[in-house]
Amino acid sequence: MSTRARFRPEFWNVVTVLILVVLAVLLILPILRVLMLSFVDAKTEAFTLGNYVEVFTRNYYLNGFKNTLFVGALGTLGACLLGIPLAFFTARFHIAGRTWISTLAILVLVAPPFIGAYAWIMMLGSNGFITNFFERIGISTPTIYGAHGIILVFTLKFFPFVFLMTQTALNAVNKSFEDAAENLGCTPWQRFYKVTLPLVFPAISTGAIICFVLSIADFGTPAILGRGFRTLSTIALAAYRSELGGLPTMAVTVSIIMMAISMLALVAQRRILAKRRYASALTNLPVKSKLSGWRNVGVHLFCHGVVLIAMLPTLVVVYTSFLQTKGPVFTGGFGLESYRRIMLDAPGAIANSFLFSLAAVVLITAVSALISYVIVRRDTPASGAIDFLMMVPYLVPGVVMAIGFVTTFRNGPVGIFGAAGLLIMIYFIRRLPYGVRSTTSSLRQIKPSLEEAAVNLGAPPLKAFLKVTVPLIVPGLIVGSLMSFITAINELSSTLIIYDSGTITMPVKIYLAVLDGEFGLAAALSTVLLLCTGVCVYAVFRFADNRDSAFV
Amino acid sequence: MASVEISALRKLYGDVVALSDINITIPSGSFYTLLGPSGCGKTTLLRTIAGFHSQNSGSIKVDGASIESLPAYRRDVGMVFQDYAIFPHLSVRDNVAFGLKQRKVGSADIARRVKDVLEVVQLGSFADRMPHELSGGQQQRVGLARAIVIEPKVLLMDEPLSNLDAKLRVDLRAELRRIQRELGITTIYVTHDQEEALAMSDTVCVMYGGVIQQATSPLEIYLKPANRFVASFVGANNFLSVGRDGGSAALRSGGADVSAMLPGSDAAVACAIRPEALRVVPGQAAADPASIAIPANLREVSFIGREMEVFATTETGETLKAVARPDPAVVDLPEGSPVTFTAPRSDLLFFEDNETGKRIA
Amino acid sequence: MASVEISALRKLYGDVVALSDINITIPSGSFYTLLGPSGCGKTTLLRTIAGFHSQNSGSIKVDGASIESLPAYRRDVGMVFQDYAIFPHLSVRDNVAFGLKQRKVGSADIARRVKDVLEVVQLGSFADRMPHELSGGQQQRVGLARAIVIEPKVLLMDEPLSNLDAKLRVDLRAELRRIQRELGITTIYVTHDQEEALAMSDTVCVMYGGVIQQATSPLEIYLKPANRFVASFVGANNFLSVGRDGGSAALRSGGADVSAMLPGSDAAVACAIRPEALRVVPGQAAADPASIAIPANLREVSFIGREMEVFATTETGETLKAVARPDPAVVDLPEGSPVTFTAPRSDLLFFEDNETGKRIA
Amino acid sequence: DTVTVYTAAPQNLIDALVPMFEEATGNDVEIIKAGSGELLNRLSAESDAPQGDVLWSVDGTAVDFNPALFEAYEATGSENLADGMKQSDLWTPFTAVVMAFIVNESELDGKPVPDSWAALADPQYDDMISSARADASGSAYIQYATVLQAFGSEEEGMEMYKAMLGNFVLSESSGAVPRFVNDGELAIGVTLEDAALRYVEGGGPVEIVYPSEGTAIAPDAMALVAGAPNADGGKAFIDYMLSEEAQATIAEQGRRPVRSDVASKDALAPLDEVNSVGYDGAWAADNRERLVEEWKDMVLDVQ
Ligand SMILES: Nc1ncnc2c1ncn2[C@@H]1O[C@H](COP(=O)(O)OP(=O)(O)OP(=O)(O)O)[C@@H](O)[C@H]1O
Ligand SMILES: Nc1ncnc2c1ncn2[C@@H]1O[C@H](COP(=O)(O)OP(=O)(O)OP(=O)(O)O)[C@@H](O)[C@H]1O
Ligand SMILES: [Mg+2]
Ligand SMILES: [Mg+2]
């Protein structure tokens, strides 16, 4: 018998190699080019470890380090305390207005930098309207400034990540597990923390890690609400923006410390998760129950209350956008002055924002499905490496990434990309992990035997993937794509380095308006961005909800 | 120790009627089996008793007290799940200990009871494995151990042995029955295996299409099936049509006169004969007066261990199947050989000729 | 139509040896059954053939061509999964049509073939249901339909009938066998049900602990089990110890002399008797020369449909089980009554006295 | 032709001046607007293949610190510059920025309106004064350097500044300073005169106060990018911004013109009534690194 030994590279091996190449070019190369800076002396441009010595010996940095951990950890905890119950309630009980809640939770994420924090000041600052209201009735409230304010804002700003990841996972838990727990004598509460919670722990921890990493990287909130409470992010921002110019060595060094913290957290999470991989056949899915009486009222109050409170700053922004202005000053009364002023050039910026984000998200959706498969189903060193690399974009501050991109792809031999191309690529690589994380947790819950069945029926790997795996991970893909989209359309720090006059985006416009103190303009621009994004999000949820009934 | 009483229970999934008008009384400590084909509503009934979904109407009482309003976790009803439902994040030991911890049993006591029950299900050396390292049958045994270790008032088992091999199944069957007797746990057992049902149960309840067909002792079910469905389901699966002409009645195949056994109605009737009641002899043969004889042509003889299965076709095209101790004179016959089936008249059963037709006289 | 040849196959999960040195030859078109207890490696072997994981060593050939290097999707090996693996996002119809679409079969043809195969598994009216609206057994039938509809070269079935009721199981068993013969698909069938294995197979391969114990025809397995494990697994589960004293040998229970049947070795030996080979009579009784007699005390009589199971304890404390047509004289005996078991000497089997001890003479 | 202009100028200046330039010269202008720090980082990142032609409206020290990024250019019309405006060959002054206090009297709780740097050091204003960070904001650095120059010696100035810093609430962006005061979050802000003026003109509850010891009247720079793709266009842009009409427009927007022949806006106090410290930009630039280090140490001491 002759065996034709024709070499046929296995499909997933090819995919793995392609992914590695893309990551090497778009991720590792630009970052390395910038990271070298932390080992360079700003003046002499010679090699040095002095930057690190400086960071670890000076109180200024050490305090920042402690503060960062403090608000990062508590902000994450707060996000979990809101996100997990919200996910559980919406996944297990009939809640009136569920789509509405999910949409609002997503919209919370559409808070352009700075403006949200300013909105909190307008509410809870020394002269904020809520503060004043309580003062009039004789209660003195603490102001928003300081660590507690930052933690409050982080909590309300980042809980949607925990909520979305957890909800997706909860919807895929095999119902029999919960039944069995209850049958063995668990009250619903015990059942929740003894069985359900451990089962969805991978998803929760992924959401929490995203919160933690983002809280560490967020500079707008501590910058505006800190009042002397400095975190590494504000230190890095200050170092970066200091008009000295020259090589941003300290900014990069501090960024690396931030990256190291996040990296540690991620590695810890991976360690814990390694032992916990649960799959279900998805044929015995949980059902929603109806609550009654005060429980029902309580749960509804909680769900709607959380998203409404989290939406407050956004509402304040919308409200502000309709205030009559003269220059930067609100003159009292309502008017469309702010909208009149943005009408001229906002449409271009909106078009740009959508164009770049959508282009990036299409890429992200396709690539994250493939990457997730490689990570979850293939047990090779390469898939481990990819999984690890998928954390990196979370960790690298946008500025660092953008400088790397510009030096790598605009100058020199590959200087073929215009600003638009660069923006799409940088959105793609920076937001890819959102897609991958979400899709990965979705995929982990699907039994491998389903794909095996497809392969066994003659479907080549790609086809089995498209026809069986992809439809089953659609919920994860949708959530991942949404999160990528929302975070991409709000991207500021790297856009600011790359954009040119034809490619200005909404967040840049909003940021510039804030810089000028033009809050009316910023609010109007934010409102427009919010509206456009909101429509998209709502549409996606409607679509996903309809699918809900069609399958799963 | 508790009696269970179910009355007028009804359960719909959307439009699908999964259970319609279920009435059941289970004495304290007895072993009650739900037997029926796939999709007949057995799992649904168990899950309703366990409290995982609520019925559309009807009531369930344990020891005379209605339990509808009790949440599932307070019903003290143990359950072995058809899809195992082993907690994937806990080791075998912790899975089994789960319910005991829930009941605040002391840890030394837990260790001992878990060890004992794992021995019973022959998983003593697997205590520290995680569920994904177990085969399907091993997982099912963990589920069984987890449910019996808590010694609940009522134990529900959803085909707990279906994935086990015959030997282990028979062993565990006896073991289950022993444990159940010892503890006196009222047990509701779901199976689609009639042999299992007949061997283990105090009462067998045959279901079909969400309706109870008959609920009585195994012997009664076997000897006096209430309708054609029950008869066929517990193994009487030769059905022969009966020709009627005024007061006289005769089997169409072979023509044996059965008028004496059929009161004078004119409704269509089928005659059922168990495969093990049929004897097979090669060639033509006449029957003694207490028996009937049916000539047929051999189609297939298959060997299933200690018995042979003989399939043959009568001249009117009906199929007959006999199960008997292997007889070389029959096993060696070529396909198509003439054979004669005989059966004692006392072993014939008559039913109205439709799927769930009543037994006559 | 394809022959399958497996040689020196070995598969480890970490340290766990799941398969060790498997050698199998399956002629084209035959029905080959892997029979063994839970955890013996049956599923592992099937999955290795299907290409879902690679062996540690050894080779698999189909029609003489090694298939190791072929990816799973090109092996043309159909599989029915133990956990069903029904695609949850596709309707029953689309699940079944999946493989056909993959093979670019015309849509009219697909519709017809899907309809036919759904009739075969008795799911004709379920074509438009989604998997989560099906019971466990119904899901399993979908998996079966999905695999046979593509008429693969080799069909692998991992306990496809384990969740079905006895009646359906027997029906589908015959149906499966018919389809398999018609299409001539070489089939490897995994089961833990010895009756199923003996009834359906051309060859039965008994596995235990990742090792093949015996692979031969059903009759041979039944009549000449190669070792004690095989004997007990296919139902010869009365083991009696044999006392040896120089050249003479006798059963400890009852003392029947069996020297003539044991060549003169001194190794420990056990005597196996099938339950159906034992006859039970009340009280004391002597045996004719061609038989042995073992007095015992009745422990339990249970009724399993067409047969009774009799358990009794001999004076040396060994347990005996007999299966026979119900005999009122026995069924009505109170617990503890003396009975005598007799068995023809020709039905006795002797094995070295350890778990997989060889058969002697 | 297209001139690419990197700028930190407020939007109102851009809106007023850029169309005029386009009209007058027929060039198209592409504006890239960001904070001056971001613009400099961007310029260094692009230094191998520059994309911009002109850096417009940043603190001159920022240009002096990065000589490699810019090209010296002597603009047409430099001869009309007011005295003391031209300080470096690398850049051309564009406007003069004047440092001032913005005060919201209603938030002072009855305390007197501070009218001098020394008053800001008074402990009664603890946590009532808004200021940007001198290590991050160019204008805050100028204010810092101004205080150091306004008293007898640097040491004296440093004492004074340290006391002030104890009263400061620092914010990361200089744009936020007048905003906070206007919104009543804080009572006093140290800021740019023209930024404060926009709130006064908008009708906000604020007033502008010039410190009696003297304040900085510092030039704001434009510079030609080294290797600019359209250097000629860049030069034309710089030239135009020095023209009389451009400077007049600047004056209208509330900024101080740099030409001696164009007058400030009427709403502002005439420059000769504002006490100047004679701000020494060169000294401020030369000592910047040292001073910022000291500033950071001071912050740790007093905040
Ligand atoms: N969630 C559901 N929605 C609609 N129909 C359902 C649902 N669950 C079960 N059914 C239908 O209800 C009927 C009874 O199902 P059930 O699971 O109780 O069967 P069963 O007797 O346990 O069968 P098996 O022996 O195959 O497990 C079946 O026809 C099934 O298709
Ligand atoms: N992923 C795994 N890791 C470690 N051990 C495993 C793994 N999968 C199976 N095993 C072990 O390998 C042995 C063979 O498993 P396999 O699933 O082939 O058994 P089986 O014969 O199909 O049993 P069953 O009839 O219960 O399905 C078992 O002892 C099982 O515990
Ligand atoms: Mg069921
Ligand atoms: Mg198996």
UniProtKB/TrEMBL annotation, chain A:
Keyword Transmembrane helix: yes
Membrane spanning stretches: 12-32, 69-89, 101-123, 143-165, 199-225, 245-268, 297-322, 354-376, 388-406, 412-429, 472-499, 519-541
Key word Membrane present: yes
Domain of life: Bacteria
InterPro entries in alphabetical order: MetI-like, MetI-like_sf
Domain ABC transmembrane type-1: 65-265, 350-540
Principal subcellular localization: membrane
Annotated localization: Cell inner membrane; Cell membrane
Keywords: Cell inner membrane, Cell membrane, Membrane, Transmembrane, Transmembrane helix, Transport
Membrane topology note: Multi-pass membrane protein
Family assignment from sequence similarity: Belongs to the binding-protein-dependent transport system permease family.
Name recorded for this polypeptide: ABC transporter permease
Species, as recorded: Psychromarinibacter halotolerans
Taxonomic classification: Bacteria, Pseudomonadati, Pseudomonadota, Alphaproteobacteria, Rhodobacterales
TrEMBL record, chains B, C:
Keywords assigned: ATP-binding, Nucleotide-binding, Transport
Coiled coil region boundaries: none
InterPro entries, per the entry: AAA+_ATPase (IPR003593), ABC_SmlMolc_Importer (IPR050093), ABC_transporter-like_ATP-bd (IPR003439), ABC_transporter-like_CS (IPR017871), Mo/tungstate-bd_C_term_dom (IPR008995), P-loop_NTPase (IPR027417), Transp-assoc_OB_typ2 (IPR013611)
One Pfam family here: TOBE_2
Residue intervals of the ABC transporter domain: 4-234
Gene Ontology molecular functions: ATP binding
Keyword Nucleotide-binding in record: yes
Keyword Signal listed: no
Name of the protein in question: ABC transporter ATP-binding protein
Taxonomic lineage of the native organism: Bacteria, Pseudomonadati, Pseudomonadota, Alphaproteobacteria, Rhodobacterales
